[in-house]
Amino acid sequence: MTPDTTPAELEQALTDAAEAAAPLAASAPAERAGWIRAVADALDAAADELVPIGMRETSLPEARLRGEVARSSGQLRMFAEVLEEGSLLEVVIDTADPNAKPVPRPDLRRVLVPLGPVLVFAASNFPFAFSVCGGDTASALAAGCPVVVKAHPGHPELSVKTAEVMMEALRTAGAPAGTFGLIQGYDVGVNALKDPRITAAGFTGSVPAGKALHEIAVTRPEPIPFYGELGSLNPVFVTQAAIDARGKDIASGYVASYTLGVGQFCTKPGLLFLPAGHGLQEQLVEATGGVAAATMLNERIAEGFASGLDRLRKVDGLRVWSEGGGATLLQTTVPELLARSDEILEECFGPVSIVVEYASVDELVAGVEAFGGNLTATLHAEAEPDAELAARLLPLLTARAGRVLWNGWPTGVAVSWAQHHGGPFPSTVGSIHTSVGVTAARRFQRPVAYQDTPDAVLPAVLQDKNPAGISRRVNGTITTAEVSR
Amino acid sequence: MTPDTTPAELEQALTDAAEAAAPLAASAPAERAGWIRAVADALDAAADELVPIGMRETSLPEARLRGEVARSSGQLRMFAEVLEEGSLLEVVIDTADPNAKPVPRPDLRRVLVPLGPVLVFAASNFPFAFSVCGGDTASALAAGCPVVVKAHPGHPELSVKTAEVMMEALRTAGAPAGTFGLIQGYDVGVNALKDPRITAAGFTGSVPAGKALHEIAVTRPEPIPFYGELGSLNPVFVTQAAIDARGKDIASGYVASYTLGVGQFCTKPGLLFLPAGHGLQEQLVEATGGVAAATMLNERIAEGFASGLDRLRKVDGLRVWSEGGGATLLQTTVPELLARSDEILEECFGPVSIVVEYASVDELVAGVEAFGGNLTATLHAEAEPDAELAARLLPLLTARAGRVLWNGWPTGVAVSWAQHHGGPFPSTVGSIHTSVGVTAARRFQRPVAYQDTPDAVLPAVLQDKNPAGISRRVNGTITTAEVSR
Fold first, then answer.
1. Based on the domain organization, do B109 and B69 belong to the same domain?
2. Interface predicted TM-score of the whole assembly (ipTM), two decimals
3. Which of A369, B162, B167, B427 is the most buried if burial means most Cβ atoms within 10 Å?
């Protein structure tokens, strides 16, 4: 058990972060890209040391954790590339227009600047990709913000070792001292969140914890943005045509997805809507029964799962199809779901999912409409026969989710330009933001517009000559060219 | 006096807005652009009817209000153009990459979709540009959100007439019923803000009102984003070299700026930092004395200004340089300011400003550092002799403001791509967002990523053929071309 950060250590971490803010903000994007690449390289180089610690502390298998290290370092490199290309700064230049109506327009040059020190609450379920070296950290560093990570108690030694690797890499690469720090302890995290030196926070975890921290952040004397990823059910809706075409694949894909990583994914499909008479019960029960029991991330999560299962077993209208091995499969119908949606639509984190049978397309639509905000919503359909039905369902899914999948499974979140990992409340607080993908950095950047400022004193990225050749929007059009004024 | 909206009327307005959300979200961007242009045209056509009502209700002069109408209609047309060009949707497409490491990457297509019904709290000081037909409304409509405006009680008849013009234009152009609505009354606004059908809110007004409404919005059972523009001091810093080069112009520009519109601009320069021995006192006093008394926007604002002046007059270290006409000029020094910064750095809305004299560059820097968040910060300097000083001050101003001006005056906010009207708390809650300029729409949009979805069921803007030829980022590069997959 790692001891909590002491008040003196917390004070030092916050002071260091605050002092790093100005030099980080002043650093050239390419310089920052270099520091971030150094962290990525160091993580990859330390994988052999870090992964075994993670295996011991989280019970996750080696291949999964190695994949996570690669994902985390790849994510850092993606941000480095986009920093160099320049899009991350969203430079917009409108040159002066003395003839503009109703009044002449000055020269305006807008760039995104870092907010300042960012507090990251690490998650338990991805000890690399959503923890110390995860997406919140990577995007905040790319934005140019010092980062203080509040370690998750589920993998304390891994957190400390990962932080050491990162700090050493940053130091060697020449990043300002205080660019990165680690703190431990729940109350310590709350105190950091209340500190005026912290300018934004990212969080991945449970709905109650996320709501409590959100309220602290937004009701401080100086409110700060709080980006929380809370809970998500990730429903999957399957049409009759999809069952006819590939019912067996859907059944096996579903069980594999909801039991992946012992069901401990934010994107675990919590419900599968099937047409009545699907004929897949036997296969689903068999596949579920074949899932080997596995240790969950930690005691608290295992206890939460056990009590969540107990709760679900007692809900009227929910029937157990398979239990006792490494996963539990429940079953209900749309009318029963609608009658007890509050009880049935409460996330249970772990290897459990619910098959919901619908008797008509209207029931399927009613099932979709029963949902609030989710990270993902999935439709399994066949393009031709389901064209009309898909056109009806897609807008309903879009209104409820941040990512809409077609004939896939929500577990697994690609890191790319177009990715969006977020969604309407309660899947996140802050549905306009993503915690994965290039635009995740925007959470930690604010725009500044310079008016009529001479080239010589402007930040280099805003200067006429565009010395680094970055991508900028000039008078409405994206270009890497020089500006004349 | 216009009566408050009744509970039944509010219920109807919210129901109408909620029902308009889906058809608005489904509308093609070009279709929405047409509706928005129709509103712009109708406003221009109604100027002769609306402006006299505004003059009577706000005491603002005709030319100013006609300028505001043109600014508002121009702003609507800007959003219509950007909708057609496509950038407002921020379409990002990453085609599938089966060879991606560590795992194959699916086809992902990200687009910004509307949040849903938006509540706009209108401001008093810009009865067009930040009121019923102002920037919050324009940007939310552009985003595809139904808008419910809570009218400001300072110009009730103008609010009703403006809303009628807008609603008739939207109806005639074929926009969904419920696209726009108007409500009146403080408690009515609060009730609307608490209603689960409202998905975001914009506000321009005082710090206490903004903080109270912000807290309601973010602590609802389902928290929503609240974009509030609250208070700003907009300090102006003048170097010795600038005084030497054009002291008289600076003095006259300053008085004109802080008394513009009876000092009722959010961007009014509240403090002017001058080097001791500037020799401009006589000119500043004379110019201030020459400002004609004028009626303020309403009784409440006039009373607030009178009590604010009383308060300032009693602050130790603040001396009156000129008072009694249409404006009041106070004076202090940096050491006195630092000794009583809490009292001196409290916004007083109206035609008053404070000259702050500094005895050294270090005092000037200390003066800059005394400020928290502001909408604007201005430097008057001479490029050559002040190169070093400007390089020292610019980062400090950047850290404190959303717009940094060089040798200009902060009053007047151009509407363009590069504009940013926002800033660190307390100038706004939500410093990462702007209420003016193209990106203002982002406050009311959330991303959705479609994974592996067939072309035929995708929204047209995401389809391979790019039927409307909009601007999209494909595999990292901006293009208007077709996508092959």
1. yes
2. 0.96
3. B162
